[in-house]
What we know:
The chain is α/β, with parallel strands linked by helices. Helices cover 42% and strands 15% of the residues. It is built from 21 helices and 20 strands. Strands 10-3-9-8-1-6-4-5-11 form a 9-stranded mixed beta sheet, sandwiched between helices. Strand 14 and strand 15 (614-616) form a beta hairpin. Helix 2 packs across helix 4 (51-65). It is globular and about 85 Å long. The chain starts with a helix and ends with a helix.
Amino acid sequence: MKKLNEIFKLDKRTIHQILLWLIGGLVLVFATEFLLRGSFEDVITLIKEKPGVVLANYLLILMLTSIFFLVKRKYMVYFISFMVILGVAITTFFLMKVRGIPLTFSDLYSIGEAMEIADKYINKTMIIIAVICLAFLIAVAVFLYKLDCDTKRFKLINFVLIFIVSIGFFSTVKSQQSKNIMQFKRWDIPASYKCNGLTYSTVESCVKYIRKKPNDYSQAKIKEIKDKVDKAEASDNRTLNNKKPNILFVQLEAFMDPTEVKGIKYSEDPIPNFRKLTQTFTHGMASAPTTGGGTVRTEFEVMTGNNIDYLTPGEIPYNTILKSKYYNSVATTLKSEGYKAHAVHNFQGNFYGRNNAYAKLGFDDFTSKEYMSNYELNEREWVKDVILTKYIEKALDSTKDSDLVYTVSVQGHSSYPTDAENYDFPIKVSGTLDQKVLNQMYYYVNQIKGTDDFIGELVDMVNKRDEDTIILFYSDHMPKLKIFEDDDFYLDKYKAPFAFYANFDIEKYDIDEIESYELSSLMFKEAGLKYGPMERFNTYMKDDPEFSKMQDLIEYDVLFGKSYYINDDEKAKKNTLKMGVEDIVINNIETKGNKMIIHGANFTTNSRVYLNDKQVDKKFIDENTLEVDKIDNLDTISIKQIGRNSVVLSSTQDFKYSDLQASK
């Protein structure tokens, strides 16, 4: 002991700090795994069955918290690092409950979207508790700052311990990976976290965000793959459809068949219209890249034909890749064939940056909630899906050409209340399952009944039109219901239903297994249209034994590389997106006393009136009429459509008040 003291100059304070570091690490590894897994039994099972995983996470926590050895205010810095790691674990616990996916580095790009819908998951009590806890933590940090000051920032013993821990960590991880005990499961983020431990997986999600070029990526290699695709396509003798039917993709929020859940009875079938489609047309279950949430991940796969598993865990490409990159999609492919491309979504236009992303994906116009009128809200204040038929029809009516309409619904969105017995819905639920489960299902089935009503209305609408139209209805992911929290639940939470409809003859295929990114290929096949670049690859190479390796190379090439795979005439071009399929116009202004009546067209409740470039209070009368208070010295007037966070989605020109009066 004396020799150790002489070499490392150990003192009581140093020993206390080392003990705090070691014991605190044990507390953290146990707490983080408990918050990830949700039960002490699962943590004990992990310790017994995978001690190497526990050791790797423990050593990583020691590495992350060892920063406190480098500073004077050691106890304060250790407390902060301890609470940051614990805070990440608590956030993961909450996200697992809300969306079924843990916290990843990519979530930093979606903070705005998370805040926007937080009120649907967080109540006032939770906010008060969070504020009190934060205030307490700040007080403790300030107390430790004033109490603690170690003049010796770094000691030899600290260096030796950090070195030993680092070597131990990398050796342990390598050993566990070589035995396939620790492995990254990019297709299943929650399973990957539970396999490798929360702390390791969270750090891994940061490291994997670094885009790495595959070792064998080259122009020659991509050409080799492209030649294989071209050769396979040349031997395909399928007949193309010269009529070019309207193409409708309809993404159904959290849609599933509730009758597949055992132990529950319903007073009527919640999805009769969708079920009718499955009896007549091609249908099946597609492997979705997410469950319980992450709508835009499936949306991106279907729109682009890309396997999103290639990207960073939890990444939302709308917020990353499509911030600045124009990219191939079903819209760019169909526009090259003379189609007009429309998007429709009954939620906020700039949520997930869709107004920007859809422009980058080649859409001509986008009708979001801000451009809709007379819609109804459900009990959780999501817009009911029945409104979508009206705006899909407007999109189809807006051109004489063939149309692509890509629709994203929202009514079936979580959260699903466990006290839903307080509501009075038409479909009644009974069964032998836990009452909270029955309550959730009672709410859920009545929401997707609304979605199913929309399906029926949309089918009726296209049947009345003298235009060939084909529709793909597909679910983005399974719902975030309590029944899916059991890892041994008999339904696959990564399989979501789809079904086609067409008002002309199409083939019916038996689909045993399909990925969400293959749905666009299937749509082009059913419609008899030319495949886009990714659809060609997915169609002709899917049975090749080297498919996965080729897919990684192709996706790196088109997402981050030189786009050797894309023909020059197929490459996405600069594109301008119009918000709303119909123009918002001001025809004239009528003065009545101290009020001004603005007459025009296509106004909505989200229309904002600007007089002399300043927003004023307005009263929405109807789609053709707005009312505002008269002001003196009025010069100009304009109407703007406002999205979340007061973002201007579109604006009319500045009209001269005198001109509008003159045209009365």
